[in-house]
Design goal:
heterodimer; A: about 200 residues; alpha+beta; 60s Ribosomal Protein L30, Chain: A; four-stranded mixed beta sheet; three-stranded antiparallel beta sheet; 4 helices; 9 strands; elongated; B: about 140 residues; Jelly Rolls; twelve-stranded mixed beta sheet; 2 helices; 12 strands; disordered N terminus
Amino acid sequence: MGAAILAAIFAGFVFFGRESPRAYDETVIILPPPPGKSIGGVVVMRGTEEHLLNTAYASSRIGGTGDVHVVQSNPSEVHASFSDVIAALPPRPAKFTLYFVTGKDVLTPESEIELQAVLAEMKKRPSPDVLVIGHTDTQGGLETNDALSLQRAERVKTFLVDIGIPPGRITVAGRGERELLIPTGPNVDEPRNRRVEINVR
Amino acid sequence: MRILALLAGLALAIPAFAADVGQVKTAHGAVHIERGGQKLAVTPGMNVQQSDTIVTGADGAVGVTFSDNSLLSAGPNTVLAIDRYAFDSTTHDGLFDASVRKGTLAVVSGNIVKQTPGAMRIHTPASIMGVRGTEFVVRVNDAGR
């Protein structure tokens, strides 16, 4: 009787003793990049260990008590194990660029056509929203350009509202001169940098 | 007086900043968001906030576009927490911490990472992924627990 109780306690001890270290089972796989884009990569960190995965289908596996193994995966594993989660990714943002007539508060004729393309793109998407981002060239100071780029974005927002896009679906941002389409030095008059980018998401 | 005005401005600014960080674009099957102790049913168009936990059932999947153009999706039987998110739409400075407790995740990194490689981190029970700019998938099985 006493021996049976001792055995039960011992069994319980072993059971709980085994349970405390968790058995891990984790997988990471890098997907091939879209055409023209490079892979910056993912650094898998565990304690002081670091593993950089920066090629298509590079993969890390963490199993058992936590050893990290870097292996090469393949399209068939991704398809078999991740097709449902990949299918659930939202559509990539569609990008449009608009220009004003120099010195005026109206869009160029080409950009008027782009506005209609924005509307058409929204109709293709589930629950779309629009991000309007103003940009300047490098003439003028940083703060002035931040304000100016935001004004440009706000102006384009009014055009979008005019063609029937609900204001609540539109967000505006001003990037100032931080994201030049045509790289230039400071204080350069470059009409192609004075633009408004639209992301339909 | 000026300080009062500044404080009033901050009080207004903080909730706006902490509020919506992304939007649900795709949702299938059983999906809900846990927010402040409440379980909210998820439909496309719903806003996602910092500290939300996204939970999917056996037939569930959901995709979210964040304000910096990061795209995240969760597959079936997944628990994904949006731990911290901040993004400045002018400078593109920001940070993004999310945790996968179990299930599957797909990630397309966005402007936070483009501006600051490594500023997006995905946490799993065994590791932390520092994202430098890429598309990738993650699976966490918790059957071994």
